[in-house]
Design brief:
The complex is a heterodimer of chains A (about 300) and B (about 70). Helices cover about 40% and strands about 25% of the residues of chain A. Chain A contains ten helices and ten strands. In chain A, the strands form two sheets. In chain A, strands 1, 3, 4, 5, 6, 7 and 8 form a seven-stranded mixed β-sheet that branches. A three-stranded antiparallel β-sheet of chain A has the order 2-9-10. In chain A, strand 9 and strand 10 form a beta hairpin. In chain A, helix 3 packs antiparallel against helix 4 and helix 3 packs across helix 5. The longest helix of chain A has 24 residues. Chain B is elongated. Chain B has about 70 residues and is mainly alpha-helical. The longest helix of chain B is centred in the middle third of the chain and has 24 residues. Helices cover about 70% and strands about 0% of the residues of chain B. Classes of the chains: A alpha+beta (about 300), B mainly alpha (about 70). Chains A and B meet through helix 4, helix 5 and strand 8 of A and helix 1, helix 2 and helix 3 of B.
Chain lengths: ~300, ~70
Amino acid sequence: MELYFPKVFDSSMLATLKTCPQLFKKIYIDDWKSRAGANIHLRAGGAFAKGIEVVRIAFYVENLSAEDSVAKGLAALLLAYGDFEVPAGSESAKDLCHMAGALVFYFDMYPLNHETAYPALLPGGKRGIEFSAAYPLPIAHPVSGEPILYCGRLDAINHFAGGLWGFDEKTTSRMGPTWSKKWTLRGQLTGYSWLCEQHGIHLDGMVVRGVSILTNSYETQEALCYQAEWQVARWYSEMLEWITDAITWWKRGRFKYNLDDSCSNYGGCGFLTVCSSQNEQGYLETYFKRSRWNPITREETEYENQSADNIR
Amino acid sequence: MYSPETQQKVSDLRSKVAAGNYKLEDCKEMVRILREDRLSAEATGRKKGGKKAATPVDVDKLFSDLDKLP
């Protein structure tokens, strides 16, 4: 049997590891994913991100007009959303029409221009649109011995407020007056700053642009998150500890359960029923399927043989 | 916010895009319709005393707030 431990970590994997080590094991080592089908938030958010990416490329690289660029982005959003239908009875407003309208709303609120919040020209001559990066960590993979990688993808690296800022767009349902505070210490954003620094790009901070999608309206807010050097250093050293601990737990064959708030937050963990049973394997094989997440290509690949221990 | 006709038009455009059988003009028209529907809904909301429409970011105020930071 092939021994498997992830060779690449991203912010979602780290966040899961910190929330519940057992959840991390189930999702990213044993590769269990829900059979329930595409998640509305991921599908809608992915389509929205694709639309924005194409708009930016059309305007800033292909030099199309703003009107043509948004139109081209709309086509990309529609294609990315695909034939997904919001489940009946869902309260989510993230259906195809609302997501299409959200893209138009976004560029009405943040018009394309060359004066502010426009993609920077990066080393290598590419525009800072959908900047993807990976960097080796000083941690040896427990099987191959190669350095484990940390990777991430920023929506944009823009000239903004006299400096260089990473931009991340988020779609959500409701924001409220305290929405911006949830990003203050968010590891995903600090990780972006660290990754950019490793590639010779110094960010003054991160801008999170939230777009709230409701049945009868949209709203947007911007959160400015400064990333001081000491904060990035703290994030980095703790990340190394978390991954080193994960390797230790993997070698011992024992990943701890949270058994606390994260089991019930956000409507309940997807593995709540599994972890509530002494016969976890039975529930896993019935309600979950095996597929592996690749954080670099950002794709899930299903096991050809669902009864196999590891993907081929 | 969006009429059933608009929703159907979006769905139809999705099918055309997926089939590769669309023109940029179709998308530009759809952008116009989506914007119109949204602005109309915002105006209706204001008349009813509902929630204020979303406003663009005030960049000057943003810079001013940044200057006040320690």
